[in-house]
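[Primary structure, fold]
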Amino acid sequence: MTHTPMAAVWEELGGDPALLPGVSTVARAGALEAALPVRALARACVGACALAAAELGARRAGLARVPRVGVDDGAVATAFVSERHLRIDGRAPLNFAPLSRFWRTADGWVRTHANYPHHRARLLRALGASDDAGPEDVAALLAGRSAREIEETVYAAGGLAVALRTPKEWAAHAQGLALAEHPLIEWDGSAGRGGPVGARASAGQDGPGGRRGRGLGPLSGGGELLPAAGVRVLDLTRVIAGPVATRTLALLGADVLRVDAPQLPEDPDAHADTGFGKRSTLLDLAADRRAFDELLASADVVVTGYRPGALDRFGLSPEALAERYPGLVVAQVSAWGAYGPWGGRRGFDSLVQVATGIAVAEGSPERPGALPAQALDHGTGYLLAAAVLRALTEREERGHGRVVRLALARTAMWLTDGIGREEGPGAVPDPLASGAVPDPSASSAVADPLAGEPYDRPDAWLSERAGPVGLLAHALPPVSFAGGPADWSRPPGRWGTDPARWT
């Protein structure tokens, strides 16, 4: 047995270490290969999420033991690039717009992000370029300027550009120093002084195990163990990390309703990739506040993915939600954290890689590089889902909610500084291969990986299904435990077309 990154994550989640021997791993050479230990990060995030799901399911179903968890490098590697495997009627989505890329500057490199039209417009305006400027025009404008000056100018205009930094430079940066003072998974304690779940129901609100009229339990009609069955999740997220978290909760049976502002259209392809199992509605928080508050009053979980402070004017900061709704689980994901000089800045996985030194570590002397997946997004998404599941388990036990925060930049620093190097996969006997349930008192370490066939094709972890947006080829979920779901209950619908109500 070895002490693994997943054991460290499970400890940060507040999980019982006696459950760790119930996790087995199939290691596959070639999965998420990189200079940095991306495979170790991905395994830990998915494994912790699956274990948290199995734990909650066992508690809600009254099982004597927590179901066994399996982590397969092939499933994990495929899911971590789900947006690349997505096909809609045979068409492959465009994941990065022409102006979302690296650019040479007078003193190094800068990376911009301009996938959304409003970010593209702000970038061009900050650079003094015309609205129809193309990559050649932008390259000429940036070539004579310093990377740090470009970064500040573009951010001041509401755009997104980050100068390339080494890991050492980031460690000395004010935001890096601020992040280093915080844990990977940041808990804010009890979300108010609420009583048990039944106390919410008696006040006209529902909660897991104490809902009125719905009669939903953790088992589906087909006998699947759905740990989050009937849990109502208000999804206020965009892009990848937050939507991956809520997509995972939907897999596990949660009623996930994504709410977007009508004036902020989402990329339909991105929505298709992360919309499995969910419904999607449009609400203007100023004009439609009554409808939103009705949803919020009976929600069990709220997940936010906007930059810190963006929702505060609507009374939707994590602190305000916790105070107003005792027992609510509030989860926030951001790019840079909710503190430090960059706490209010927008950000994306690709930009965080550039700022934190990952692009240097994965690059060459001639050009910066990138991870083999948007692993900060996906990894943080599974960690966020794991934290929500653990908070729901604690609420079953103690009757109060929690507030939890994660940041892509903090996940990046865990990758560069905290995980360490994993040993290459070896043919280690898997104590769970026989199907025997491990003795929880025997050890508190995760079993060493069992060597599997090399990862060279993702076909075994892809599926097809028809839905409202077309025929979808998509990655299967990597979160797996005995008796759990193998796929989502429904394909993604069209963005913003569902009614603003719970099922």
In short: The first strand starts at residue 23 and ends at 27.
